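Dear Dr. H.,

I hope your travels went smoothly. While you were away I took the liberty of generating a structure for the chain from your last submission, since the lab meeting agenda had it listed for discussion. I wanted you to have the full record in hand beforehand rather than looking at slides cold. The sequence, exactly as received, is reproduced here:
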Amino acid sequence: MRPISDLLQEASHQAVDSRRLFHGRGCLYPGYEQVTVDLFAPVLWVTFFKAPEDADFEARVIRELAEIAEVHALAALLVQRRYLPDAPAECVWGELPNTVWACRGQAKFTIQLGGRQNTGFFLDMEPGRGWLEQRAEGKRVLNLFSYTCAFSVVAQMAGAVSVVNVDMSRGALNQGRENHRLNHLPTDSIRFLQENILKSWGRIRRPGPYDIAIIDPPSFQRGSFVAAQDYRKLVRRLPEFMAAGGDVLLCLNAPELGEDFLQALVSEECPDCYFVERLTPSPDFPDKDPNQQLKLMHFRYQP
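The corresponding predicted structure, in token form, is as follows:
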């Protein structure tokens, strides 16, 4: 776990981008496959995904992380146990500040540490945010499965002329609105549509056509979206809402489905889209098997 201390040494904890410090899930650190550690300054957030076989394992990890947090003058160490019902979280060292944000450069995003499985800001999506930031100026952006609208904030800060965020969750969209307010961004050109995406194409098409579309569905959400079955329904709709020459970022976080799955889908369902590149995964999320990593695939629609 000592690489964590080395990474924290690189910058002051008072002004540092949120990041993953330790990614045991990539199977590159034998014995730590069930552990991840994230920094949401000034808080260290450790997650245990599986009950340990060694009864003292978690206590040893927590002791070492508490020592690192103290050395680097952090405020608190939070632990979440994803293998328990409702994935409970507890502060095991220090005192949790009243407010903690995810930080990205000058941008801040509301997060919830504890009380749910996800914080509200996905650290491994940083290559996608960087991709959007480089090309959003002057563009009309569609953000499907927008969750808490981090892509929307990045797009607006980069000069997008409009963004349409679509998600089924009213709570996530409300958090998205708050993320815009938090960054002092007007929402006149931003739409927040609470829709079942597979059934609401009329409302999604109407503000288009779009110059950029980000499609980031859940890999498996029973009763809502199953990537292996439903992703093709999204891809075949691309000609209905994309502008000629538009860029599409297809995202897939399903370890069992490789990048060839998306390439084959696009070839079958939208042959007017051609593959440009797979974005390089975040170095903070190293993995023994690249197909296990988050797949961010850039296509261009050129009818």
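Two observations you may find useful: Residues 49 and 273 are 38 Å apart (CA to CA). The chain has two domains: 2-110, 123-301.

With kind regards,
E. W.
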